[in-house]
């Protein structure tokens, strides 16, 4: 067993103690090599339960929150048509691609988007479509979605994301600036039922032009 496989196993055990217990989520997290999404100088930290820098002031999310957000969708019986806002390294998108049939992901920084796209191709993950764009607007031409997750924090829920949810669909996102909470929103016709879940710490969801 190589060093990464061993630490990957330890990470999965740690995630279980933190409440990420769903088998399909844990299998995906065992299969997708997180070190592959991180620069080689930081790869030795890939299986620690922490966010890490990926350049351009952005981070790959903490494994716990990746597992938790994915599990929330599984618990809502989501199977396909998942939109992620904030592709970043592509790691969360890869996990979503293993768990759900069809995934879409939007990133505003072109270099990160291109890099993430290449990584998923190298891992033979072909059910994730990615685009360079502003996630505040969602991905109108692919809507409606069964689920949307946002991996950067807006200070208010972007209205387009609510509108692009299917009836019965689920939106999971961190909301806030210095103080953030993970929020779950379920669409019931024109009603949106919000539940505040737990404290969170994400980079900001930037409004405005893409770069
Ligand atoms: N899911 C990522 C985490 C990336 S961090 C991963 O697994 O690595 C959040 C990402 O959101 C950053 O890459 C940032 O550039 C992106 N982002 C911020 N504002 C955005 C916006 N308005 N639209 C799309 N992406 C945005």
UniProtKB/TrEMBL annotation:
Listed CDD domains: AdoMet_MTases (cd02440)
Gene Ontology terms, MF aspect: protein-L-isoaspartate (D-aspartate) O-methyltransferase activity
Catalyses which reaction(s): [protein]-L-isoaspartate + S-adenosyl-L-methionine = [protein]-L-isoaspartate alpha-methyl ester + S-adenosyl-L-homocysteine
GO biological process, one term: methylation
Keywords (A to Z) from UniProt: Cytoplasm, Methyltransferase, S-adenosyl-L-methionine, Transferase
Subcellular compartments: Cytoplasm
Stored Pfam families: PCMT
EC numbers: 2.1.1.77
Active-site residues per Swiss-Prot or TrEMBL entry: 61
Highest taxon above the source species: Bacteria
InterPro entries, alphabetized: PCMT
Entry function: Catalyzes the methyl esterification of L-isoaspartyl residues in peptides and proteins that result from spontaneous decomposition of normal L-aspartyl and L-asparaginyl residues. It plays a role in the repair and/or degradation of damaged proteins.
HAMAP family, alphabetized: PIMT
Family in the record: Belongs to the methyltransferase superfamily. L-isoaspartyl/D-aspartyl protein methyltransferase family.
Protein name: Protein-L-isoaspartate O-methyltransferase
Gene: pcm
């Amino acid at each position: 067993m190589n060093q990464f496989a061993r630490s990957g196993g330890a990470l999965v055990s740690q995630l279980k103690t933190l409440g990420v217990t769903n088998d399909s989520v844990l299998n995906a997290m065992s299969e997708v090599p997180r070190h592959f999404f991180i620069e080689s100088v930081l790869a030795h930290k890939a299986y620690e339960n922490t966010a890490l820098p990926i350049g351009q002031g952005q981070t790959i999310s903490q494994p716990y929150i990746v597992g938790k957000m994915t599990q929330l969708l599984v618990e809502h019986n989501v199977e396909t048509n998942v939109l992620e806002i904030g592709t970043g390294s592509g790691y969360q998108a890869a996990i979503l691609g293993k768990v759900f049939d069809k995934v879409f992901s939007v990133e505003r920084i072109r270099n990160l988007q291109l890099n993430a796209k290449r990584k998923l191709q190298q891992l033979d993950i072909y059910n994730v479509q990615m685009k360079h764009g502003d996630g505040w607007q969602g991905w109108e031409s692919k809507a409606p979605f069964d689920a949307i997750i946002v991996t950067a924090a807006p200070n208010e829920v972007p209205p387009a994301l609510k509108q692009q949810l299917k009836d019965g669909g689920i939106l999971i996102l961190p909301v806030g600036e210095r103080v953030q909470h993970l929020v779950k929103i379920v669409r019931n016709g024109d009603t949106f039922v919000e539940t505040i879940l737990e404290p969170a710490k994400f980079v900001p969801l930037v409004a405005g032009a893409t770069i």
